[in-house]
Amino acid sequence: MPAELLILSNANAIAQRIVDKTGGDIRLALPLGLGKANTIVNALTDLAVAAPSIKLHLFTALTLQHPRPASDLQARFLGPAITRLFGAYTALDYATRLAGGTLPDNIRVQEFFFQAGSWLGNQSAQQGYIPVNYTHALDTLLALKPNVILQLLARDKDRFSLSGNTDITVDLLRARARGEQSFILAGEINAQLPFMPGAAELNPDELDCVLDDPASQFELFSVPKRPVELADHAIGLHVAGLVPDGGTLQIGIGSLGDAVASSLILRHQQPDSLKAVMAKAPFPGHAAAQHSSFTTGLYGVTEILVQGFLRLIKAGVIRREVEGALVHAGFFVDCHDFYRELRNMPEHKRRQIQMMPVSFTNQLYGDELLKRKARQDARFVNAAMKATVLGGVISDITDQGQIVSGVGGQFNFIEQAFALQGARALITLQATRESKGKVVSNIVWQHPHETIPRHYRDIIVTEYGIADLRGRSDAECIMAMISIADSRFQADLLAKAKAAGKLPKAASVPAPHRNNTPQNLRNWLAPVVADGTLVQFPFGTDFTDVEQQLLAALGILKAKAGSTRAMAALLWRGLVSKSPGQLACLQRLSLQQPRSVTEWLTAQMVKGALAIATAH
Description:
Elements: E1 6-8, H1 11-22, E2 25-29, H2 38-50, E3 55-60, H3 72-78, H4 82-86, H5 93-100, E4 107-111, H6 123-128, H7 134-144, E5 148-156, E6 159-161, H8 169-177, E7 184-189, E8 201-202, E9 209-211, H9 230-240, E10 248-250, H10 255-269, H11 271-279, E11 299-305, H12 307-315, E12 327-332, H13 336-344, H14 347-350, E13 353-355, H15 358-361, H16 368-374, E14 378-383, E15 386-388, E16 393-394, H17 410-419, E17 424-428, E18 432-435, E19 438-441, E20 443-444, E21 459-462, E22 465-468, H18 474-483, H19 487-499, H20 518-530, H21 545-560, H22 564-576, H23 580-588, H24 597-615
Parallel strand pairs: 1-9, 2-3, 2-5, 3-4, 5-7, 7-9, 10-11, 10-14, 11-12, 12-13, 14-17, 15-20, 17-21
Antiparallel strand pairs: 5-6, 6-8, 15-16, 18-19, 21-22
Helix pairs in contact: 1-2, 9-10, 9-20, 10-11, 10-12, 18-19, 21-23, 21-24, 22-24
């Protein structure tokens, strides 16, 4: 290790060093997600709060935060379990102040991707958001000319690794090496961070100073596994049949990503079971669907590395090597088990999971011939919030312009799907959602803002089937989208299309697609869950059995909140329903002995929601 590398055990000393070296005008670049050096960032924020003469401009993405309960019921559920579920993660002071409206004028925060839903309604965050594709975030940052980068690091004796955040930092370091940028790189060691070798490794000469303080180390942020609902499972089963053997795979985080990964494993390990399940599907399948085991196996190239990829490797689904790697990924964030699995993995196995900059994973530019050869028959699978019948995709923004998350890398992978021979982009979404007691369609006639424009329409998958849209006329596209919509909304969508002159007046929903109902979905898949072929948490969970019951009930309560009629129905259902499991759930929420009328009403509605969840 070079003698000039300064290793300190005091974050305040590093923060003061940064202020001294920059003259107090700090343009700070922070990696997204896990990569933030929270302890140093907080020390630097404290200095800026105390000294208004210090200017601190932060540019980052995906600031991870423990959820802020929006109701008494959420607080009862999360309060006793928040550390267990999300990790004893050191909160970032700039985010806390931003949320509370106490961020001083000399500190400016700009993000290009939000933790989903975390900044809805926050004027400062919404106004500071920068809409860029993930691959273009580097250009935005280079134009800002950051003079400080603070990064969480993994350490193995005298070796240092960017671990799960090679995404933009690698390219920033390359720009500095070419003399195009000048900045201080300071690191913070975290023993829980898996040491990722290869492109993620740093030359110690690249570091100005490092914080290595066991007393300030924190648990990595954990993303609890959400239950995979029947609709998610159906989508995963549809997608699994569209992935060709010997191809390339990209998936994202969340229950839909888990559903896709678990369905691919089912296809590989139990192809006869998968075929039997799909044979009973009440919704038409895709003509080109494949349900046989993988002989050659897949190669993974993805923006985010999630636990599903580790399980796919272990199951033998992902086994096609490219340049010694089974998976190339830009960053990772997931659950406790995911980090533990990577830490405990022998280094030669970790070398098969290569962390790379997003300039490698998310685009073809640079080494394009090699990338094209490697990314054969690619399937890029990403989730959306809504889609229009003309094939436009909405993944990050509400109709009022509020940013839910961000564009991120979704457009990058859509673009690759059109640039690569044999590649397809698969957009997944549930056909409906419930809000304020009302079920609404996620397939809509129009939306004022689109994340992916309609001329990039490719394949869209709901629980009711697959709409293959590439190269099809508007009329064909509209009919294909209506065919995978919930049947309760098909007539309205059909009427709007006809009124706009986009469908013939005599057009009707094809007969095989007129029974797209939740009941038919339950009739199909509930028995498959009951016999254990499909499971609610395919890759495990940190939620207890009681908490798993409550998750479904709280989801029902949230969906019906705001509707007096729906809440009254829940209250009545709770009054007349009794089951042995209700008491344990009420005890978990400290509602077994209500101390007020409000608590009594809440307890009854929880019981009603539990009864509905059990019935489903």
